[in-house]
Amino acid sequence: MARITKPLTNTEVEKAKPKEKDYSLMDGGGLFLRVKANGVKSWLFNYYRPLTNKRTNLGIGNYPAISLMQARNKREEWRALLAQDIDPQIHLEEIKSQRQKDNQNTFQHIALDWYQSKYKKTVIETTATKIGQG
After folding, report:
1. Lowest mean pLDDT among 11-15, 55-59, 65-69, 96-100
2. How confident is the model at residue 121 (pLDDT cuts 50, 70, 90)?
3. What is the rounded distance in angstroms from the CA atom of residue 75 to the CA atom of residue 33?
4. Which of 95, 90, 2, 78 lies closest to 51, judged by CA?
5. Are 74 and 60 in contact (CB under 8 A)?
6. Given strand 23-28, what is the order of strands in its sheet?
7. How many angstroms separate the Cα of 118 from the Cα of each of 14, 50, 109, 113, 122?
8. E strands of the chain, at which residues?
């Protein structure tokens, strides 16, 4: 039978103090707050990967930058992905990759590529340098 975990409160999260060793405060549904010995409080989501069925942790962010409510919202978003057999970690990597691809498709990036490949080879080095700086 599944263990029932009492959800955390804002006060419990705020008052969690560092100890000699790292420890975790469970919120339930795979969400927990890891309190490190140096005082850093990090939100983590623990889940089974859909393809390999192995447990893994996915970082959400540090407290207080990410509040308890924001961490719970992220947990629910990722649990919805897991219900569709989508690994949240792979999903985040795909989003990041798409953003990088979108950033490389700017006029400045394309013009710089053209300058490097075509123009710089056909013009004298000093002229190419002057134009490249201006």
Report:
1. 96-100
2. low
3. 12
4. 90
5. yes
6. 23-28, 31-35, 41-48, 55-63
7. 58, 47, 14, 8, 7
8. 23-28, 31-35, 41-48, 55-63
In this prediction, residue 104 carries a pLDDT of 75
pLDDT(40) > 70: yes
Task: Give yes or no for a contact between 52 and 69, defined as CB atoms under 8 angstroms apart.
Answer: no
The more confidently predicted of residues 72 and 120 is: 72
Share of the chain above pLDDT 90, in %: 49
Q: Let me know: does 39 contact 23? Beta carbons within 8 Å.
A: no
Residues sharing a CB contact under 8 Å with residue 82, sequence separation 6 or more, in sequence order:
47, 48, 50, 88
Q: Find the farthest-apart pair of alpha carbons in the chain and give their distance in angstroms, rounded.
A: 76
Residue 120 has pLDDT above 80, yes or no: no
Provide CB contacts within 8 A for 10, sequence distance 6+.
67, 68
Q: Write out the two tokens for 117.
A: 């490949």
